[in-house]
Amino acid sequence: MIKNRISGVVAAALLLSVQSQAQDTSLSSVLMDAENGCMEGPVAQFGRYVGDWTIEDEGLQQDGVTWQSGNGARWNFTCVGDGIAVQDFWMPNGAAGAPPPGVGTNLRVYDPASEQWEITWTATAQPGYTHIRAKQNDAGDIVMHWVTPEQTPPRRIIFFTPTDEGWNWVMEMSFDAGETWTPVYKIKATPRQ
To answer: What is the DSSP secondary structure assignment for residue 141, as one 8-state letter?
Structure first.
């Protein structure tokens, strides 16, 4: 079902592009450089992350107590088609002296019928298709759960509400079938200078 929705979004964008080529070939002609639609209504849930971000990250070590800083990343969120979707591009830094380990992208489409986000993730380090579903909670944070492929142990990601200084994100795993959640990876995003 999500593949059909995403295929429909892509097909509509391509059709608009082909139809407009005879008249105007700019991105503006198909609203692909407009952002207002991502800042209004439910799409603003992820639209508020649109921007270019510097990422500091840290991961929980095997001892279950120690946190180790990662190599950081750049994460760029963009509005697609003036509110059709929010797409982001994850660009992790390589270890000192090493090339970057690859890139990834999410396409985030809001489904008004279910009041949830349907998300597709793919990355060079993990080729293939991952389906994630997300919903904003009462606190205004967005909670994401993997749909397919099934994760063992189960995991979720929480995007915390942004402020003027940036925003935080955490990946958690459950070792008791979702009764409790343990943070295993954390991100702090600040505006890229």
So the answer is: -
Q: Tell me, what DSSP letter sits at residue 176?
A: S
Sign of the dihedral defined by the CA atoms of residues 178, 183, 186, 188, in that order: positive
pTM for this predicted structure: 0.82
Tell the residue number behind the tokens 């921007």, with chain if given.
Answer: 51
- Comparing C-alpha atoms, which of 111, 114, 93 is closest to residue 102? 93
Report DSSP letters for 143-155, one per residue. EEEEEESPPSS-E
User: What's the CA gap between 179 and 152, in Å, rounded?
Assistant: 14
Residues counted in the chain: 193
Q: Which long-range contacts (CB under 8 A, 24 or more apart) does 149-158 make?
A: 154/178, 155/184, 156/181, 157/132
Q: Which tens digit of pLDDT belongs to each residue from 117-143?
A: 999 999 998 778 999 999 999 999 999
Helix (H, G, I), strand (E, B) or coil at 115: coil
Q: With beta carbons less than 8 A apart as the criterion, state whether 116 and 135 touch.
A: yes
Which residues lie below 8 Å from residue 23, measured CB to CB, with a gap of 6+?
A: 29
Q: Long-range pairs for 26-30 at CB < 8 Å and ≥24 separation?
A: 30/81
Contact (CB, 8 A) for 72 and 56: yes
Please enumerate in sequence order all residues whose Cβ is within 8 A of that of 42, keeping only pairs 6 or more positions apart, or say none.
110, 112, 115, 136
